[in-house]
Amino acid sequence: MSKDHAFAELERLASEDLIRFDGPGSPALVGFAGFDPHSGRHQPGGLAGVIIRRGNTPATPKRLDPRNALALVRFCRFLAANFGVTELSALGMDGGGKYPDGTPRVDCHGQGRAMDFAGVTMPVGDVSRRITVASHWGTVETAVTPGGSWPGGTQMRYRLDEPDASPLGDPDGDLFVADFFRSVYDFAASEWQDCSDSPDPACAISTIGDPSFIRHPDHPDHPDTRSVDHIHCQIGKSGTE
Fold first, then answer.
1. How far is it, in rounded angstroms, from Cα 72 to Cα 77?
2. Residues 44-51: what's their mean pLDDT?
């Protein structure tokens, strides 16, 4: 999808009062204003029915590539419709920023083409629960991940499918958490980059443990680039596009 096409779709969603832009927006960059589509009122951090938080602070994302912005809106709608998610926690979502040496950040995050998903708040049974990548996936100990980490040279696979996986002794059953993160991964593979940094052909998406541009706790790459507290999703190349 081109930037123009993505921005046109965002404009359509704005005209239907699902989202609100923070300023005019353009096919170059998009920012969102906090908005609740159910009440039609301002809502800090509100995007397509979900409140986005950076830490404990509601924060609608700014300076986004419109393709990433559209994927994020679709992601919020997916989470709300399928799991009743009310809040989404992110470690990194805004474009812009600087490197430690003070120069402008120009990688996929700096260009507003990436998202680091950390977790959600949603109803599970009769209570509202916070499910995080760090606690319920990235640090889970199993026979294949002793101490919560993969030993060197191990063939990667989805650790939550292991028979002894127990994310925090999840009282609602490990299957729920495992299926939730699998659903998140499958959605990300259909909306963001999956098997290549170019438009993927119409073929089956990857599964957790396969090589992919989606970074997560069970990614087969070198452990220095494996995330244990978030799922990284991007549009386009990892460096400057």
1. 9
2. 96
